[in-house]
Each structure stands twice: as structure tokens, then as C-alpha cells.
Amino acid sequence: MKIEELLEKKEQLQFVILRTLVMEGGTLPIPELRDRSGLSKSAFDQYLEDIESIGSRMKQTVAVRRNEYQAVLELGDDISLDQVLLFLLQESVKFNLLIFLLEHQQASIIRLATAFNLSESSVFRKIKELNQLLKEFGLQIKNGQLHGEELQIRYFYYELFQFIPEEQRPLYLQETPEKRPLFLGLERALETVFSSISMSRLSCWLGITKKRLLCEKSTFASLKDKKMLYQTDRLYQTIDPVLVMYLSRTAAQLNVYETLMFYSFFVSFSIMDEETFYQYDLTRSKKLPTAVLDTYIRETMLWHYRPRRLKIEEEKAVGYQLAQIDNEWYFFYGKVERYDRGNLLRKQKQMLGRSLSRLLDQLKETARRQLPSKATDERSFNELMLRYASVLMMIDFYIAKPVVIGIDLNTLPIYRVAFQQFLIGELKGISGIELENYEEGKDYDLVITLNPRNQHVNTYYLSEFASSYDIARLKKRIEAYKKEKN
User: Fold this and answer.
1) DSSP per-residue codes, 290-341
2) What are 124-155's pLDDT values in tens digits?
3) Is the N or the C terminus of the chain less surrounded, counting Cβ atoms within 10 Å?
């Protein structure tokens, strides 16, 4: 589910226009932008005008100007596309209806119509639109109540609120004094200290949990078998007494799955730091489904890079990231997306190359074999592959040998410093390279020079001062050297 799908149709299209311009560097020919938005000429012109009203309501600069045949995006220096989306989201009826159902558990159509100043037919239409989006999470709004697996309901709300900055969330989802006893109890039991980000995530999940404890009917069909598998885990047993003691103040009688639901969250969203997780992983049963998957995926990844090996700290970091990814994939399904998935996938494929793309296909088959119950969820698999691709890029970064480049501009005594800074500025954004002044007798993978007497084996002779032609050719050659060296 894309987060912008919670907006009204008009705001969705306005956001598509803004995002398209951002992705294209801020400008695009008007006919092409109109084609991408799928609007008629008159509707498109009106939408561009209305975008400026968003800025007026935000008291910020948000507009699309016409420059002859070009559409030009204007955003204030202190505002981002995310902030525009957040503003529109907080005005959205569908978003606020979801929050209302969390806070009140159940509400009649009449009550919802009154609360949002809508007709009953409009409320029915909004619920129908929401149910289409909630299918991905296995959820449905029916009779004024959200139905589905309890763990999925809590996960959905957690995902939804991760888009909202903590200070703008309802108070019950923020870090407040009454939550401190649980945090302190967990820190003592696990001999760790939570980061501020972990505290924020814990506060959000705990706030959702306490609201859901007030719900009279809940469904736990998928948790019975998982509880049998995980209740003997050391971390589960450590969490259980601390959590039960704390939640018993909120609900007179807790269901038997509360600890499993909290555990599922705890091991999936980077609550523990790397070292705490590493110490837990040493004692974690290797028969747990997620532990088995972690091992297969990690070893397949590392085998691909042999004989090169990661340092112990780097291997810990890779294992930590994989564990969060695999746990989330195992316990939950559905995703609230805030970025363009297609763009992410294109960028990752460009960075991975053919060899790692083939490895990604192999990892996909491994995940299918290890957890066949998830094999039919293709959308979930695609999200998993995006995350595995990020881990592969992480390993690539750790293991890559840098391309060492010497810059020899000694034949430019007057302009040397300025030209050298220009080159460094153009090339330093390329990962996996080291730039330095050329020293005679030192080995380099590439020497950039204007000096024809420099007879280094791999030399690029600049054609012109600060030319874009040279920069483009240099970038292409550097990428070739990186592939050759790694």
C-alpha cells in the first residue's frame, strides 16, 4: 500500500505531479508531465493552479510554474516532498478514519458520519476504498470495526505511524512517563540500554497495544503454531514476565499471545543494538524457522564473495540486518510504502550488476524453500528482494577494494588548485574510490593528468579545462576499473 493512496483522488494526482518533477530534477516538458498524470489539458491546468493552494495552507512555497514549454517545481528551502505528503495525509478523511477506529475500537456508520461531518453514503464509500487498501494486510473494516489477525492490526498501525514524526503522533504513541517502567525492566533484564530511536518505536507499539487491549474480540488464528515454536526461546522467556507484569495494569486478563506479539515486533524492527542481538543470537535455537533462514541466506551471500572475507564486526552487522529482515517477513505481511518502489528497484539493479542480480534470484528461491507458507505472496517476495539487495550492496561496500586515483596537474601552476578542486568535487560522490595528489613512484589504478610525459600505465589525459566530456568519460572508466578490481 502506498501511503499516498490514503489521500483523496485529487490530492493523489497532485502528489504524483510533484513526485514526478522531483524524480526528473525539478523540470519536465509540460506535454510529458500531462501525459504521465493522465489528465486532460483543462484538468491538468487546474491541478497545477491548485497545487499552489497546498503551499498557501502550509504557509510554505509549493508550486509548479510554467517556463515556456517546461513545468518547473518550486519548493521552499526548508520543505521536502515528505512534508507536503504528511500535511495532506493529516487532512485526509481516510487516514483520520483509521485513527478513529484505533481509538474507539468500534463505531457505527452514523457515529462516523457525525464525527467527520459526512453523509452516510460518503462514509460507506471511504470504507470501501480503505478495504481495498487493507486487503494487502489481511484486514477489513466491517460493522464499524477493524477485523483481521490481531498481530496484523497492530503491525498495520505501527507501519502507518512510522510515517508520522513522533512529536506529531497522538500522545498515547509518544514516549511518556507511564511507559518508562517497561523500558527500564527490559533494559535490566536484557542488560542493555535502548537508543532514542528504539524508545520511540517501543512507545509507538506499546501505545497501539494498550488501545487494542480494550477491544472485546480479537483473532489469533495464525499465532498458535508460532507460539509453540518460539515460547522456549531465551529472549521470549526474558521478555515474558516483564511484559505481563506491566500490561496487567491495563487489562485484567491478558490473552496468551501478548508476549509472542511483542516478541515478533521486538526482533523485527531493530529495537536491540547489534551487540545485544549478537549475544542473543549465540544462544538462539538454530531450529527456529527464522534462524534457519538467516543462516542459509547469510552463508549463500558470503559464499558468493569467497575467497574474500568480511571482518568479524562487518559480519555481525550483516547478520543483524538479515535477522531483522527475515523476522519481519516471517511474522508480518503487507507494507506501507513511502517511496517509489519501481525507482528503488531500478536504482538497485543498476548498482548490483548482472552477477549480484543472479545471486538475488538464488536467494529468492532459497527463501521459497525455507518458508513455503510465504511462497504464494509475490508482493511480499518483491519487498524481501529489495531488502536483500540492500544487504548485498552493504557487503559490496565492506568488501570492495578502492580504486586509487592520482591527480597530476603540475603543468597548470596557476589554475592547478582550482581545477583540482573541481575534479574532486565532480568525482568524490563515486563510492569505492580514493583521490589524492599524484606522487611519482607510487602505484595508482588511474592517473588523471594534462601532462603527456606522465607514462603511467592507466592514464587519462584531460582534453579541456573543466569539460563535462572529460568528467563523463572519467566516470565511465572508473566504473570499469571498479568492476575489474572487484
Assistant:
1) HHHHHHHHHHHHHHHHTT----HHHHHHHHHHHHHHHHHHHH-----B-S-H
2) 999 999 999 999 999 999 988 999 999 999 99
3) C
